Amino acid sequence: MKTSSSSLSREIERLHEKLHHVGWTRKHCEMIAPTTLEINRLKTEQNAVILAHSYQTPDIMYGVGDYVGDSYGLSRMAMEHPARKIIFCSVYFMGETAKLLNPDKEVVVPRKAGCSLADAVNAEQVRRLRKQHPDAGVVCYVNTYAEVKAESDACCTSSNVVAVVEAMPQEEIIFIPDKLMGLNLQNMTSKKIITWEGTCIVHEEFDESSIKDIRTRFQDVKILAHPECSPGIVALVDFAGGTESMLKYVQESSAKTFMLVSECGLTDRFKAEFPGKEIVGTCILCPYMKEIHLDDVLQALKNPTPEQIVNIPEDIAERARASLDRMFELEQKGRALLKERS
Ligand code: 13P
Ligand code: SF4
Predict the structure, then answer these.
(1) The whole model's pTM is what?
(2) pLDDT at 1 over 80
């Protein structure tokens, strides 16, 4: 479709307004504007909504994303939004989660991208763990595929993991697949946690010396880490929590300088959304999240391949959905329990 020069100019302005905070020049914005315009036009025409995880690149988050958030917030948005079609810009397991929660909607992923955590455990391994620990309940992190969710008693995300585990009826919990999050969890709950050998290849990379170095260089810095980092890192930071709770922390803090011990997309998001705050230190790129490019989003809208359309066999979907439903139920109960104890 032909684009008028005035709508192209407006699009370049719109993009530059947000993206200059993360170092994008007007020239960069001129290069992507025809694509973002086309994506946004197709999106309206097809009654589609684009959900973008915070680890996506800024052109996706701010150029075409209707909502940017963490795995929990985006799952909720997928359930509440009236659009007929969901384009999920993130790794595959998140697209699967959206499909589980919205069986009647079409969910499309621009790339079938993996995740070192989701790839670390399969259904057969969960069944074996259950046999080894018959008295334990099984809680799976949302970074798992549907077949693993289907074998679990409840799912959880980084934003509700403590509440879900606390509300489980068992005293022993098999927590899969993130070993480091499981070890952090052991320090935060009264339950006995049985861990698995999965790790996030991004968050396991941070070392304690870089945190100490930032503290000596920036006296009033507040340091925030994702709970997929090691307990050694979590012990050194001012706050550990999921993506959206980090955002809330920065929003409510009077501090001016922050370090995010997390993925680079999050750093970009904070720079774009809090231009008055200074974000210091390093970040690490997630190669899976970064597989998705703007052109993939356009192609997924125009002509999705069967591989890009999320489809989950009904026998697995039904049981996986039950573990997500259980998560919503347990998180309420767990939050009430934690409040009572505090
Ligand atoms: P969130 O649950 O915070 O979105 O994290 C998902 C993830 O993949 C973190 O590495
Ligand atoms: Fe998976 Fe880690 Fe990438 Fe998140 S950052 S998608 S947990 S590999």
Answers:
(1) 0.95
(2) no
